[in-house]
Amino acid sequence: MQINMQKAIILATILLNLIASPLAVGADENQERRHRGPDRFEKIIALSGLNLTAEQTEKIMALHKAYREESEPFREQLIGKGRELKELWLAGIPDRQRIATVEAEIQKLRKQLHGKLEGYRHEIRRFLTQMQREELDAILRDQRRDPERKRHG
């Protein structure tokens, strides 16, 4: 009985470390997360000197709003699935099959959300002139090469 309790404590410690480690890293990267996805892309467009017309800005803002509304259910589902996965791992005897199922559902949701993001980016590019698209591509390339600039830009 004593050995089983020790094993349970060790397992619980390992699981908590597995769960807490990404959360701790995520907390440090909270600032960076705000600059990902559509918000980061929109910030680049707004601050990059692309000289958008009022009409372009209006269309991009409308697309951004539509994207946020359309993607919100996916983000909420991802949060719910993450909580469910955490509970499954913390159960007395983790159900490996259910864990695998929930992980697959999470991956599917992430893929769907990423597809929506790519569609959003593609739609924005349609409103830009060739010169603006080239300038945007150059900005994105620079940010990939210089992560500090990306983080603080």
What attributes does this structure have?
153 residues; mainly alpha; 7 helices; elongated
List SSEs in N-to-C order: HHHHHHH
How much of the sequence lies in strands comes to: under 5%
The coarse silhouette is: elongated
What's the total count of β strands? 0
* Low-pLDDT segments: 21-35
Q: Tell me the span between the first and last alpha carbons.
A: 57 Å
Mean pLDDT: 76
Characterize the main sheet. Answer: none
Compute the CA-based radius of gyration: 21 Å
Report the total helices. 7
Helix content: over 70%
Describe this structure as you would to a colleague.
This protein is mainly α. The protein has helices spanning 2-28, 30-33, 37-47, 54-90, 96-126, 130-145, 147-152. It starts with a helix and ends with a helix. The model is unreliable at 21-35 (pLDDT under 50).
Question: How would you concisely characterize the structure shown here?
Answer:
By secondary structure, the protein is mostly helical. Helix content is 86%, strand content 0%. The protein is elongated.
Write the layout of secondary structure elements.
Blueprint: H1 2-28, H2 30-33, H3 37-47, H4 54-90, H5 96-126, H6 130-145, H7 147-152
Helix pairs in contact: 3-4, 4-5
